[in-house]
Amino acid sequence: MPEGIGMELRVIIAELITPKFPVVVKVGHANGGYGKVCVHNHRSFQDIASIVALTDTYATTEQFIPGKCDIRIQKIGTHYRAFKRTSISDNWKTNTGSAVLEEVNATDRYKKWIDECSQLFGGGLDIMCVEAIVGKDNKEYIIEVNDTAMRLFSDTQDEDQRRIADLVVERMEKQYPPTLNPSTATGAALTGAFKVIGGASTPTASEGATKTEKKKNGGMFSGFID
């Protein structure tokens, strides 16, 4: 684990053995709490395994952590946010049901987490989030990393959408720098479009009237359609 992350952080990673019960079985790649089951004993585990066997997808298991709340750290370009979500519906899934959501300070520690996770993917991700659970032992456990599939919360959604749009435009301009003046390019594009439209021979008034009349008689709308 890189230095500076924090010794109190526990990361849920692939394990060579099945963790002790209870465990969380995650089926497929659904989000929002879907496809996740808390299994308390081996009999229930066998039941859920028999159901997963009928599906055309994978399943993973991880240690069940009784949580007080969950933390989401969000990164869009160089902008960071952090949210804390506390369930008030007594659901073991802290991101499901009624909950109190509040934006908290994106500390340097949280930024370090998400930056380290970002660098695990090629040259780094511009848009992503890290989700962690604060257990009843007051330790923080990273359980999930999401890319652009991350959900934007309503209170900050508009601002975040603008940041994403600006980031996409910035990356496009960097990858494909404009070679023409925007106004000139637009004019050239429109001129070219008009040339294509006007390239066909223009029918005479009598020909146009004849075509229009035929379309009317045939129960069709009027106009020139070749």
UniProtKB/TrEMBL annotation:
Domain Synapsin ATP-binding stretches: 16-173
Primary location recorded for the protein, binned into one broad class: other
Location in the cell: Synapse
InterPro entries: Synapsin, Synapsin_ATP-bd_dom
GO biological process: neurotransmitter secretion
Keywords: Ligase, Phosphoprotein, Synapse
GO molecular function: ligase activity
Chain intervals for the UniProt region annotation (Disordered): 202-226
Phosphoprotein keyword on record: yes
Origin: domain of life: Eukaryota
One GO CC term, this protein: synaptic vesicle membrane
Family designation: Belongs to the synapsin family.
Record protein name field: Asparaginyl-tRNA synthetase, cytoplasmic (Asparagine--tRNA ligase) (AsnRS)
